[in-house]
Amino acid sequence: MIWTPTALTRLERAIDEGMRVQIRRRGTDIVLIPSELRHAYGGELLVGRHLGTGDRVQVALDEVESFVVLG
């Protein structure tokens, strides 16, 4: 996925408002509540809590195939 300014703004708004986000990575969908964007390993990581398990999840933005803000 190419992260346009509009897509990053939607993701940042979801973080600020505590909205759920569905992310597709490596062909698998993950629903999480994002908490922050962090710079690490030469790129950006999305950090959040998995909606089903409550586990902390870190996803490299360059691994994301698509995302949708669920509200």
Structural overview:
The chain is of the alpha+beta class and 71 residues long. It has one domain (5-69): SH3 type barrels (Roll). It has one helix at 5-17; strands at 21-25, 28-40, 43-50, 56-60, 64-69. A five-stranded antiparallel β-sheet has the order 4-3-2-1-5. The model has no long low-confidence stretch (mean pLDDT 94).
Task: Summarize, please.
By secondary structure, this protein is of the alpha+beta class.
What is the correct CATH architecture? Roll
Count the beta strands: 5
CATH topology: SH3 type barrels
Share of residues in helices: 10-25%
Please give the domain count.
Answer: 1
CATH class: Mainly Beta
Note the main sheet.
Answer: 5 strands, antiparallel
Number of helices: 1
C-alpha-based Rg, rounded: 11 Å
SS strand fraction: over 45%
Mean pLDDT: 94
Strand order of the largest sheet: 4-3-2-1-5
Structural class: alpha+beta
Summary keywords:
71 residues; alpha+beta; 18% helix; single chain; 1 helix
Topology:
Blueprint: H1 5-17, E1 21-25, E2 28-40, E3 43-50, E4 56-60, E5 64-69
Antiparallel strand pairs: 1-2, 1-5, 2-3, 3-4
